[in-house]
Every structure is written in structure tokens, then in C-alpha cells.
Design a protein that fits this description.
single chain, 1 helix, mainly beta, 42% strand, three-stranded antiparallel β-sheet
Length: 152
């Protein structure tokens, strides 16, 4: 799902609504290598609360970000548990910083919101482990598998 029509929400007596939806996440290219979430999809839990013309959206999901370790090139995984809030105002005018909002014309840009949340939560380096020793700069041997590796 790329976007979600907020008009489809059916609010209960407390002006709250919930949805769970699959959101596709395009792969990230970092340092020339491809990274992504497990299965290319996250299950977004969306809570919506309405007060007058304002709808507060709370999105949360759990996923694993996967790709090659930046030191040794072995598989690496970063667990992510993310939660964010987005506020939408009914009747917002066309020119109100439209590019900076995830809700435009009653549509939540779910794919963009989720991808931006993942990108902002990533560590500076994607590693298989904090103690990863990387590759030998001379021959490329994995120093995690050969800790006593040396060249004469």
C-alpha cells in the first residue's frame, strides 16, 4: 500500500479508529549496497484520533533492516521498533507546505512515511555485531573468522 484514504476510517463513539495495513518498503541503497526490511513489507498499526477538524495519526511497526555488514560484508540485521505521530488538519489549503506533510488531500502517504521513519532510525553503520573486526585490507580475509590473521 502506497497511500491510505483517511475518509475510509469509521470512527467509534470516542472519535478513534484503528487499522493495520501492509506497507511496501522499497530497498535502500547505502554505500552502493542494497538494504531493506524483511520481506519488503511492514505491518503498519495506525491509530487515528479525531478532535474537531484535526486528526492525529499514530503509526507503529516492528521490523528488521537487513543487508551486508559494512565491515565484513556478512549478513547484518538491525531490529527496529518505531512509532511516530502525524497531525492532519481538515481543510488545509493547497499551499501549506504540502511537500513536508505525509497527509495530503485526505490521503496518508503511508509508503513515504514508513520509509522516512526507517531511514531516520538507522545507525551510522550497519554492522553484523559491534565487535566486528572487518576484512583484512591486504587479502580480504574475514578477521572475525581468523582473529590471528597476519601478513609477513
Amino acid at each position: 500500500m502506497k497511500r491510505f484514504d483517511l475518509r475510509s476510517l469509521r470512527f467509534d463513539d470516542m472519535d478513534e479508529a484503528w487499522r493495520q495495513m501492509p506497507v511496501e518498503v522499497e530497498p535502500f541503497i547505502l554505500g552502493g549496497a542494497e538494504f531493506g526490511v524483511r520481506g519488503g513489507v511492514v505491518e503498519l498499526d495506525l491509530e487515528a484520533a479525531r478532535v474537531g477538524d484535526r486528526v492525529t495519526l499514530t503509526g507503529s511497526f516492528v521490523t528488521a533492516f537487513e543487508g551486508p555488514c559494512e565491515r565484513c560484508l556478512e549478513p547484518a540485521q538491525v531490529p527496529l521498533e518505531l512509532r511516530a505521530i502525524e497531525v492532519a488538519l481538515h481543510g488545509q489549503s493547497e499551499g501549506d507546505d504540502e511537500e513536508e506533510r505525509y497527509v495530503q488531500h485526505h490521503y496518508l502517504q503511508a509508503q513515504t512515511w514508513v520509509r522516512d521513519l526507517i531511514g531516520a532510525a538507522l545507525p551510522a553503520k550497519i554492522l553484523c555485531g559491534e565487535d566486528c573486526r572487518g576484512l583484512c585490507p591486504v587479502c580480504g580475509a574475514n578477521l572475525n573468522e581468523a582473529p590471528d590473521h597476519k601478513h609477513q
